[in-house]
Specification:
heterotrimer, A mainly alpha (about 300), B alpha+beta (about 550), C mainly alpha (about 300), A: mainly alpha, about 0% strand, C: about 300 residues, mainly alpha, globular
Chain lengths: ~300, ~550, ~300
């Protein structure tokens, strides 16, 4: 197992290097630069600005300089927010987004996981259709729709919960977490149901049932591990995606998270910020995909044996 | 666990019960009591260095933190004493002497001196510093030459500190709007020792604007700055006119999403919104004691026509396109009556200037022109492309216009929406036939609009080039002796411009805000200018008043 | 999965009665059949729209503006006074096309990629899955903006762009399934019998991993329809006055308080499609499930 993990961590280095390199050149060829604005700036001013950010150097030198800085953990100054470093912006935004993502995932796992398992126990009955229909509606409801809807109902008509903010007014974390989590809950419910059905039809489960084991034991002891493998495979990228995808929710609820920085950086052509957030995100993705593979391996006894024997 | 939605309701009501959420005190209620103004500011400011940033949200905050030589009266927009308590203008309008208020102080207690201004302007004009708004000082003798690196001795620039409290400014030529520029954030003074403690004069990004380092001279001081969350300022105890500052503080929120902002306003989290979503406007307008405030705004919304390339190089076609636009109908339907139809580039009543109106919506004439252009009934005209940047209101207008041209002239128009920076790239390189554009004035003067269309100007973007026009704007108008003479020249220029129709003016902007009824001293004006010194909150305001 | 897809699969697998049996079982599943009928109906409407739409999708009536459902306009009109029913019908053409084609692209790449990685394992697996990691991390928006600039706007590009992102998770799920199946007795038996890897993957691994794949596919289709709206905002994809369900819903969401019908009706169209897809998906899954078939 440890070999497996260290091998994967070793593989992460080229992955991140490729991501940096591709992103670095990708953003440079994208049309429009960080200093383009509605009111045109003179050539002199633009040249001075480029010099301030060392954009006047040859591209390969900029690239090498970036890698050098990165090796020291320095992601450079932001273009959009002069006087702020990318490190600082990420440090300000990430804890908020991580917290939001954590709650959202918690919501998603509790609701989605339960719904999926319950539905899979009696397929094609009301016990299946009701939670699954709810899940379907969850999928149809993109967060740009669910968020405002929840705000209208619980924030304005009922006046129970704050309509925006994060950690400013008690209760303001509830609606954003549900909004972000709902879509994932729907996925988890569907994937969970399918995975569980797959397992519940396996011979060893039939054997267990034939032995007369109580249903809950069959489910919890024997089926969950195998049945939730697709969910776990989905969760790794989902959590990383949650961080990037929280942009919509952060905008609706005016949450000062990393998602807003990540998307706005692309809109602003904030080169260093795009690179910084992408590098950061790629580290997260590698970690979470690894984590989800480890959990999947742990859940699948045969795979566990395979990795153990490496 | 059955239907997800039921669970949500249960989950939330239980949490509500736990949190004891009986609808705690709103920001508006606590703000009215404590004199704290909760302000929707549109977006997170790039920063708070007045010489570096460019933008409206930055302007709103900097206006509270800093004070220029003059400020504006929000009711009349006339210059009022700021750091300078008075000023003399010479007969020829070229020499302006500012007498600084001896009571003006930096927030650390240092007096604000004429030398501070000279140093600050040197910073703005230093070529390596790369200030986007350096041109604001170009009316000053040699300022442009210094900024472009043609001279390196700042003593040659026409800004001199005669003593601590006397600043003498020499202009190249009479510039009627120069006093207005002294209220623009780019011409504010910064505290030289503070800047130098954190870097050199040419450094754009240092830590001096952080809460713990910031030294400023305005009516408010920076108290808290939480990225993308809020910026709090509090009343300054060193400001010379502190007795007239009524607010104890302001909280600025980066309200990027207009719809969310409107909801924050509705539940009492904001006193003031940056914008109002178009669809919400009729709802608010119909209300008694409406919080909706709309006023003409010094800006024009227009479409650029590429005069360099076929088929829009055809003047008759350009005219036909413009005459076939029923601006009145657009304004009343799609735009909900929130704008004023425009027929020229300069907004009407720009400091007493009214642009000539050379045409109006005229379908017959438009069809004639189209036929004369060689495309009777739109025949033979290739599909025109209209480019706009992705934004809901631009889309609405473009979609309506597309159909209008189809119905009125039988012209097919293809819409191309582009992401903001791609759009900027397209417009700058003139890779379009028709493109949406807007211009908001930096100061109130027709010159601010008409100099857009100088030959080869960076914001011209149409290919329009007319030496006579250039001469009027650059040579004749500045030499005009009276306002009437000057405005007559502008009228002449504007006529020449609209006769070539390189643009299709659509409407004059309006500023639109929701303002809580407890807010006072916040008059609307064409600059959408706020002077926080004048603002006060009614402590005794009660919601019941609305029902009376 | 559409009928055509099933039919083609059927052809490919002639000789085994698996697909025929599945079709018979599917016909017995009422809900799945209902889904199939509804979906076919939507597709037929979409195909016939230019001839049966009550109004022109471009014709505006600015004076009328947004109006609630009425005798003239059964589903009301949008802010330009255009008939909403017509908009939804034309929008369906785009959304269904994007939904099915882009998902098919994602499915094809994702399933193949995941199956090969999971089956071969070892270094190949590592390289392939790390490539997936890289794709996850690249800034998608910049990629889209570049696409629009380099290739201009066209539908094919839209399919590719969407397919390019959606296949990643598909590949991960497929790989996980194949990896776990590969250890099972029947696969080991098949290998020892000397079945070629491609036959093994095609005949045994993919059919046995179908459950989660079908489900994920039905989840991907609505996602893709909504993603299309986002890409259209970035300038890739369709342009006004053309529209799609995703665009109609996102415009409707902005005015949900003032003009609720602009949100509700496109929302219903999308939801109905989704429900039918899922019933059909679940039915297919059950029908193709070799083991439950023995019941």
């Amino acid at each position: 197992m440890w070999r497996f993990i260290s091998l994967r961590l070793l593989q992460a280095i080229p992955v991140i290097l490729v991501v940096i390199t591709v992103t670095f050149f990708l953003v440079r060829v994208a049309p429009g630069g960080p200093f383009d604005s509605e009111k045109a700036v003179t050539r002199e001013v633009k040249a001075a600005l480029e010099a301030q950010y060392k954009l006047d150097l040859p591209l390969y030198q900029q690239y090498l300089a970036y890698l050098g800085d990165l090796a020291h953990g320095d992601l450079g100054p932001s273009f959009k927010y002069p006087g702020r470093s990318v490190n600082e912006l990420i440090a300000a935004g990430f804890p908020v987004t991580a917290e939001l993502g954590f709650y959202a995932l918690l919501v998603a796992l509790c609701i989605g996981g339960l719904a999926g398992i319950i539905a899979s126990l009696r397929p094609n009955t009301a016990q299946d259709y009701v939670p699954m229909s709810a899940a379907m509606i969850g999928i149809c409801m993109p967060s740009f729709l669910l968020g405002p809807l929840l705000v209208l109902v619980f924030g304005i008509y009922l006046d129970w919960l704050p309509v925006s903010g994060w950690g400013d007014i008690p209760g303001d974390k509830i609606l954003p977490s549900i909004t972000l989590g709902a879509g994932y809950a729907a996925y988890i419910a569907r994937l969970g149901r399918a995975g569980m059905l797959e397992v519940l039809n396996q011979d060893y489960i039939r054997t267990a049932r034939a032995k007369g084991l109580p249903e809950w034991q069959v489910v919890v002891k024997h089926s969950l591990r195998g049945g939730l493998i697709p969910v776990v495979a989905f969760l790794g990228p989902a959590f990383a995606g949650l961080l990037a995808g929280s942009f919509v929710v952060e905008t609706i609820f005016q949450i000062p998270g990393l998602g807003r920085f990540y998307v706005q950086a692309a809109f602003n052509r904030d080169y260093t910020m795009i690179l910084g957030t992408t590098v950061f995100l790629s580290v997260l993705i590698v970690m979470f995909n690894l984590l989800s593979d480890i959990v999947a391996a742990w859940m699948n006894p045969r795979l566990r044996a395979q990795y153990g024997s490496h | 666990m059955r239907p997800t939605l039921l669970w949500l309701v249960f989950f939330m009501s239980s949490i509500c019960a736990l949190a004891g959420c009986t609808g705690g005190e709103s920001n508006v209620a606590s703000g009215n009591r404590d004199g704290i103004f909760h302000f929707g500011n549109g977006s997170e400011p790039q920063g708070l260095d007045p010489h570096v940033v460019t933008g409206v949200p930055e302007n709103k905050i900097l206006g509270a933190l800093f004070e220029g030589l003059t400020v504006k009266n929000p009711y009349t927009l006339e210059p009022e004493p700021g750091v300078a308590s008075s000023w003399d203008v010479s007969e020829d309008g070229r020499l302006i002497t500012f007498h600084l208020n001896p009571k003006a102080r930096w927030s650390n207690g240092d007096p604000v001196t004429a030398q501070d201004f000279v140093w600050s302007w040197k910073r703005l004009l230093t070529p390596a510093f790369g200030a986007e708004y350096a041109y604001m000082l170009y009316p000053i003798v040699n300022a442009e030459a210094f900024n472009k690196g043609e001279i390196s001795d700042f003593d040659q620039v026409g800004a001199k500190a005669i003593d601590d409290l006397t600043l003498e400014v020499t202009l190249t030529e009479r510039t009627p709007y120069f006093l207005q520029l002294m209220d623009h954030y780019s011409t504010y003074a910064v505290h030289p020792p503070t800047i130098e403690a954190h870097g050199q004069i040419s450094d754009r990004f240092t830590a001096w604007t952080r809460v713990e380092n910031m030294v400023n001279n305005g009516p408010f001081n920076l108290k808290r700055w939480q990225l993308n969350r809020r910026i709090e300022v509090e009343k300054s105890e060193t400001y010379w006119d502190r007795d007239n500052v009524k607010l104890n503080g302001i909280v600025y929120y980066p309200t990027e999403n207009a719809i969310s902002e409107e909801r924050m306003f509705r539940v009492g989290q904001l006193h003031y919104t940056n914008v109002v979503p178009l669809t919400k406007i009729p709802v608010y307008q119909d209300r008694e004691n409406t919080p909706y405030v709309q006023a003409p705004y010094l800006g024009t919304y227009y479409y650029l026509l590429n005069t360099n390339e076929a088929p829009t190089d055809n003047l008759l076609l350009r005219k036909a396109l413009s005459l076939a636009v029923d601006r009145q109908q657009l304004s009343e339907t799609v735009l909900k009556g929130t704008v004023v139809p425009a027929y020229s580039i300069t907004p009407p009543d720009t400091l007493g200037y009214y642009p000539p109106r050379l045409f109006s919506f005229d379908l017959e004439k438009a069809r004639d022109l189209l036929a004369q252009a060689g495309y009777p009934e739109g025949e033979g005209l290739p599909v025109l492309q209209l480019t706009y940047n992705t934004q809901e209101d631009h889309r609405k207008l473009a979609v309506a216009l597309q159909q209008m041209w189809k119905d009125n002239l039988n012209i097919d128009v293809e819409l191309i929406n582009q992401e903001w920076k791609v759009y900027l790239d397209t417009v700058t390189n003139m890779q379009f036939q028709i493109a949406r554009r807007g211009w908001i004035g930096d100061y109130i003067d027709p010159n601010n609009f008409l100099d857009l269309f100088l030959s080869g100007g960076g914001n011209n973007n149409t290919g329009f080039a007319d030496p006579v026009y250039d001469e009027i704007i650059l040579q004749l108008a500045p030499q005009a002796q009276t306002k009437e003479e000057r405005y007559a020249l502008f009228e002449q220029a504007e006529t020449r411009l609209m006769e070539q129709m390189p643009i299709i003016p659509i409407y004059t902007y309006t500023s639109k805000h929701l303002v809580h009824p407890s807010v006072n001293g916040l008059p609307s004006n064409v600059m959408d200018y706020l002077n926080m010194k004048y603002v006060w909150l009614d402590k005794d305001w009660q919601p019941q008043q609305e029902e009376q | 999965m559409t009928v055509e897809a099933i039919a083609s699969l059927e052809k490919a697998e002639q000789g085994t009665s698996l697909w025929k049996d599945a079709w018979i079982r599917l016909r017995r599943n009422k809900l799945a059949l209902f889904g199939l009928v509804l979906l076919s109906l939507f597709i037929i409407i979409a195909l016939l729209t230019p001839w049966i739409a009550p109004y022109s999708y471009q014709a505006q009536n600015l004076e009328l503006g947004a109006s609630p459902p009425s005798a003239d306009h059964w589903l009301g009109t949008d802010i330009f006074g255009r008939d909403l029913m017509t908009q939804i019908m034309y929008g369906g053409r785009i959304s269904l096309a994007v939904g099915f084609v882009a998902t098919a692209v994602a499915l094809l790449i994702g399933v193949t990629w995941g199956a090969v990685a999971g089956y071969v394992g070892g270094r190949t697996d590592a390289v392939m899955m790390r490539l997936v990691d890289i794709m996850y991390a690249l800034p998608f928006m910049i990629f889209i903006v570049l696409l629009t600039v380099v290739f201009g706007r066209n539908m094919l590009l839209l399919f590719l762009a969407i397919g390019a992102v959606e296949w990643l998770t598909m590949a991960r799920i497929m790989r996980g399934q194949v990896q776990s199946l590969r250890q099972q007795e029947f696969v080991e038996a098949a290998i020892s019998l000397g079945l070629s890897p491609s036959t093994l993957i095609r005949r045994h691994l993919i059919p046995n991993a179908l459950g989660p794949i079908i489900v994920y596919t039905t989840l991907t289709i609505p996602n893709v329809m909504l993603l299309e709206a986002f890409l259209s905002f970035l300038g890739l994809g369709i342009q006004p006055p053309q529209t799609s369900w995703g665009l109609l819903i996102s415009y409707g969401a902005e005015t949900m308080e003032e003009y609720p019908w602009l949100l509700i009706f496109p929302g219903i169209a999308l939801t109905l499609t989704l429900f039918s897809l899922n019933f059909l998906g679940d039915g297919l899954r059950d029908a193709l499930d070799v083991r439950s078939a023995k019941d």
